[in-house]
Amino acid sequence: MSLSDVKAKAAALHAQFQKAGAQPVDCAILQPAETLLDLYGEDIRTRAYVSLDPVQGEVMLRPDFTVPVVQMHMSDGAEPARYTYAGEVFRRQEEHPERASEYFQVGYEVFDREDPDAADAEVFALFTEILAPYGLRAVTGDLGILTAAVAGLDTSERRRAALMRHIWRPRRFRALLDRFSGRAEVPPTRAALLASDDPMADAGPMIGLRSEKEIRARIDALRADAAEPPLAAEQVALIDTLLKVSETCPHALEHLRDVAVDLPAIGPAVERFGRRCEALDRRGVDVTNLAFEAGHGRSSMEYYDGFVFGFLEPSHPEWPAVSSGGRYDALTRQLGRGREIPAVGGVLRPGLLVQLEAGQ
């Protein structure tokens, strides 16, 4: 696979998105790090190439296009808007050394407040059409359903916030659920700390960046959490049931509506999923055979907060998604300085498509 082949495929995809009505845009390869690193989430923060510029301060090589495009749109973009871009992104790959740390990305983003469900369907249908010749497996999900479930738990705001923060880290999320429900034993070191009248009395010299005040505040927070009643087993079981939903869209919708009877907080998000299915059907997508996985998207970008999708190559399980995307309304609020707009988009990896075309 040559770089010229990848560039040619990127240009062809870029042209297809322009033909669909998107305005071509570009973003600087060197991006300011201070604001963007907080928006990307833990995964990208640990994989970004960060450096210090004597004039600009902390900067990073562009790890994706979506956040800079949202910044641009919220600063001076007209509404509605459709954008497309093509270029290199950069991510460290310590955990997957077989993957390229510099690769091309081509994307399509929609900012339109008129009918978000129709916009979801527009983006997914367009990617489905472009990728049809490659025989990829399409899978969808909806992070809005899981976040609604967490928001509806009968527990403290502190615990809900902790679970919400770790939705994109499944193992940590599970560990918190087990701890908050009393299913996991308290570690002996924490039990000893909580039982002590003054844990700082025998702490020894202060080492590290945290002050004594910060450490005492953390201990107080642990004590407050330990004093809370456990999460009800019934609510934890409903979260478990929700996360196990992995069916075709019509069956998943029926299953989730059953869950919503006992977990009414997810009702509006589930009905939005139903409206999206109808919008996808109107766009010609075969919803009857389209996969829905409630946990899909939990290891992708943390700015996704609703509909998510991916196109996977079954013969290469070691590959990342050939294409992925989703809805990121909350990101526009964060960057909009008081303004917001529903937004959804997706990206393709032209390099992987070139490999598929070459039979690799």
Automatic annotation (TrEMBL):
Alphabetized InterPro entries for the sequence: aa-tRNA-synth_II, aa-tRNA-synth_II/BPL/LPL, HisRS-like_core, HisRS/HisZ
PROSITE patterns referenced in this protein's UniProt entry, alphabetically: AA_TRNA_LIGASE_II
Molecular function (Gene Ontology), one example: glycosyltransferase activity
Residues of the Aminoacyl-transfer RNA synthetases class-II family profile domain: 17-271
Keyword terms, alphabetized: Glycosyltransferase, Transferase
Alphabetical list of Gene3D superfamilies matching this protein: Bira Bifunctional Protein, Domain 2
SUBUNIT field: Homodimer.
Name recorded for this polypeptide: Histidine--tRNA ligase
